[in-house]
Amino acid sequence: MQTKLNKTIANILEILNKDLSPEELLQQVGTHLHQFIPFDRFSLSVAQLRYWFFLQNQEVTTKSDFSPYNATSSASTHAFIYQEPTLRHNISNEIQFQYDQDLQQEQMYSDIIIPFTVDDIPIGTFNFSKKESGFYSQEYFHVAQSLTHIIALVAKKFWPSKRIKP
Question: pTM of the prediction?
Fold first, then answer.
């Protein structure tokens, strides 16, 4: 397991050092993260760009409606604003955000949301979603937090010299 994790981290470092579009970056990083955290949809919100990038069924889509200042619009913005990692076992029983109903319509019932920071600057969130309610355990939650932290440390190395391109 540790060897697989080390190899994944090395692969992610290599990906982050490439000059990729956010869509390519998400697709390649998502492929490696999927080995440790199964998901039906993986998304990355980037506050500076006010973009969402979604990876679902090997397809990347974008939305330009990420507003990092409205904590009631989504669990992701709430996690971003308060820098609180979030594990939700059954979204249908926990609806409290505007976009939760959209998740239900997409049949996404379980999610993990991890805020992403570089040099203590909030950048966005990593979001892992599954169709099965109760899918994510505390173990997945801790793995997601650890991998996000590692990615942030790796990103810190290249952040000053590279910028994410919209």
Answer: 0.81
